[in-house]
Amino acid sequence: MIALVKPYFFTNEASMVNVDLRAIIEHPIIRDDKAYAPLWCFCKLRDTVSVNDGHVLAIADNIQEYNCIQLDYDSGVKMDDFISEFSDKFMFAAYTSFSYGYKPGDRFRVIIPLEHPLPQSEMGFDYKKAMFDIFPGCDPSCYDRCHLQVVPCIRSEGAPYRYHFNRIHKYFETPIELIRQYREMSINTMAFDRAVERFNGEHSQNRTDYTPILKWAQEKIDLMVEGTRNNTMFGVIGFMKKKGVPLDDACTIDVPSDCMHEWNGMLKRIYM
Questions:
Q1: Whole-angstrom distance, CA of residue 5 vs CA of residue 18
Q2: What is the pLDDT of residues 177-226, one digit of tens each?
Q3: Could you give the CA distance from residue 70 to residue 54 in angstroms, rounded to a whole number?
Q4: Burial of 122 (0-12, 13-18, 19+ CB in 10 A)
Q5: How many CB atoms lie within 10 A of CB 83?
Q6: What is the pLDDT of residue 166?
Q7: CB 3.0–4.6 Å: which of 51, 71, 82, 264 could bond 110 by disulfide?
Q8: Are 243 and 215 in contact (CB under 8 A)?
Q9: Are 20 and 66 in contact (CB under 8 A)?
Q10: For residues 1 and 15, is the Cβ–Cβ distance under 8 A?
């Protein structure tokens, strides 16, 4: 399944066979501004979804599972090097981005079909760390739970553009074991930290339980949309501070990678 997206909303969901996908990649659309190009996400939407004015919101909670991994490379990795490294490992399609040829370096996108669908609920912090071990040069936001890509698009007829289909009959298998290893490491680290707290007398039976507030904060972050993200993050941090949530607990909120710089800056300004 492929869900096509306009700002904030999933516009439709459709099945797409390989020949359709090849045609789109081989013949990119032309837009003088990529803001007017549609986005796509290779996923299956939930049966019950959140809507706004009848439109399905383009948010992670509306996605049930992913059929492909979508990677963005904008610096440091050459398209030919990626093709060479993974050509005998799994099937994929690669195409250059809207900025290719107009900004330095190779700028390209990769679509990797999965052997088994990946539940959206599995795409947590441990998933991000495991995938970054395998594809270290891509944009970290590719591992967020609602990552969208601009469809193949060029700014004018004859603009620089490349594509490649790796037609090997192997599908990428999500590294479940590596994800579990990272998850186990996280659990062990948290257990050690709790033991240190108890030993130092920092843990008290009277300590306030901030779990409901943290759960509310995480839901707000998960539901925020482009254009209002800074306001949402500022409001969430301010509310946690007002309710007495310690900074260490506030830092446990899982924020999209491309918002992390702004999030950390707001935490510092509001808490410090």
A1: 20
A2: 777 777 776 655 555 455 545 545 554 455 578 888 898 889 888 888 77
A3: 28
A4: middle
A5: 15
A6: 94
A7: 71
A8: no
A9: no
A10: yes
